[in-house]
Amino acid sequence: MIHVKEVVTLEHHSDHTDCGIPKFDSRDLVIREDIMAKSKELAELIGTSEEVRQFQKAEKLIQQHERIQVLISAIKKKQKEIVAFESFQNQTMVQKIEQEIEELQDELDGIPLVTEFQQSQSDINYLLQLVVSVIRDTVSEKVNVESASEPAVTSGYGE
């Protein structure tokens, strides 16, 4: 795989390298409109995928689930308490509160809806990683093919 990184030096302000290859400062790159349009189209497709629908459904149910919201609020409050006790260098209280957070987190993790929500997050991440991998691999193949030496021309007869 070829990794290409354009470098712009302060001493050399030319628009091209010594080899005639254009140089770009990433702040000056303008993405082609067709690439941006296809990116937005792909984002729309992903946004309407079953994985995203499941995530949105689970997220809405979590927001409406009273016990889950109480647990999340309690965990956030205890996290703030830890910061306060750390500033007072009270390690005993920090450890006590960390144990309380762990118990709250265990209860939260034991709720099936939370497990479903976490799975839906994982599914979306997998989908996004897969899309990025396909794009990266496809571009890498094209870069490798174009940068490789041309294959020998054959006549196709009797070879």
TrEMBL record:
SUPFAM superfamilies tied to this protein: YheA/YmcA-like
InterPro entries linked to this entry: Bact_com_dev_regulator, Com_YlbF, YheA/YmcA-like_dom_sf
Domain of life: Bacteria
UniProt-listed Gene3D superfamilies: YheA/YmcA-like
PANTHER family linked: REGULATORY PROTEIN YLBF-RELATED, YLBF FAMILY REGULATOR
Name the record gives this protein: RicAFT regulatory complex protein RicA family protein
Naturally occurring in which organism (per UniProt): Paenibacillus puldeungensis
